[in-house]
Amino acid sequence: MNQNPHLRPSKTAVLLLNLGTPSAPTAKAVRAYLKEFLSDPRVVEIPRIIWWCILNGIILPIRSGASAKKYASIWLPKLGSPLMHYSRLQAKELGEKFAHHGEVVLVDLAMRYGQPSTQQALEALQAQGMERLLLLPLYPQYSATTTASSFDEVFRVLSTWRNQPELRLVKYYHDNPAYISALRDQVLGAWDKDGRPDFAAGDRFVMSFHGLPKRNLMKGDPYHCECLKTGRLLGESLGLVPGQYLVTFQSRFGKAEWLKPYTAPMIEELSKAGCKRVDIFCPGFPADCLETLEEIAMEAREIFLEHGGKDYRYIPCLNSNPKWIDAMYDIAHQHLSGWSLGVESDAILQERERLAELAKARIA
Asked: Among the residues of 116-213, which ranges form H helices?
């Protein structure tokens, strides 16, 4: 077999980008993950020297053990990290979707922090003949803290390559009809199974998104606006009116003001006001993870029930919902327009080899 890299079939690839997860629910593994994550200047915009002291002197020693216990509470038997499991499953099923349509597209997964690293994923695709690359973040709403950071890491790796691939980026898809339809299908599937909330009786549907410091919004990050639009479009697609659904923001950290309203206080407020049932969903997380399974499905449930609520229902993330796989395929296809999604014919490969031999003859 000819090993000349210039004679390999030229392939198109889609790389799914997600945040990452510890390799195990242990203090050591969580500490390593948190250190990489919280050392990213895109994530924490505090002067480096000051933040280094806070991170290494306070946060990592205190939070690593506590976070490890939380990860242990949501770790899947034999499967490990839910985020890793579902993200890998999404990549696998998206690849199968392309194959079902007779298209040859490489699909892989990279984590911004932890494994599989961006460098590992890119080098694996390169070894398979990737010449065209589409980056598809598993962050529907754009933020500099997530989307831009993942792009930064891709750019950093590619900056070391002599022969770079053509590159396209999916910046956001918070209002993409296929994405909204997949969210709607996930919610309706839960309601078909467990019954629809009685909104006339005061039941509420809460959409919880990951929070950000308010200063990010003031500096121009569009994330807040995109979350609100996703919430409005999903609410409308479910036939709801404002008041029946609420958009909130979770995972607040530190003393600075973050995007409001905060999820936990809103859950408490609803229960104290006499709301008996809350259905809660996290549209910004395509795959279940610590922030959804522990913070929302467990902690928020306790808050609601402790303050008078009676019926708290967590609706799982999109995970491997077939409509979400369809949506990823549609989103990717929109951005792959004009690129070859097939296998080069024998005639094309033979012509490339002939031209390569002519080129070698000239050099010699």
From this structure: 118-127, 149-158, 177-194
How far apart are alpha carbons 290 and 19 in whole angstroms? 12
Q: What CA–CA distance (Å, rounded) separates 284 from 297?
A: 15
Cα–Cα distance, 344 to 364 (Å, whole number)? 28
Residues in the chain with pLDDT < 70?
A: 1-8, 343-356, 359, 363-364
Q: Which two tokens stand for residue 105?
A: 């597209």
Q: With CA atoms as reference, report the closest residue to 84 among 45, 50, 113, 58.
A: 113
Question: b/e per residue, 68-99, with b = 16+ CB within 10 A?
Answer: bebbeebbeeeeebbbbbbbbbbbebbbebbe
* C-beta atoms surrounding 313 within 10 Å: 18
Question: How high is the pLDDT of residue 1?
Answer: 43
**Number of domain units in the chain:** 2
pLDDT at position 350, please?
63
pLDDT at 292: 98
pTM of the predicted model, to two decimals? Answer: 0.92
In a domain, 306, yes or no: yes
Residue numbers in the known binding site are: 210, 291
315 residue type, one letter: I
pLDDT at 8: 65
Any domain includes 362: no
In this structure, are 258 and 185 located in the same domain? yes
CB neighbour list of residue 261: distance below 8 Å, 6 or more residues apart: 246, 248, 249
Residues in the annotated binding site for Fe(2+): 210, 291
Q: What are the DSSP calls for 269-314, one per residue? A: HHHHTT--EEEEE-TT-SS--HIIIIIIIIIIHHHHHHTT--EEEE
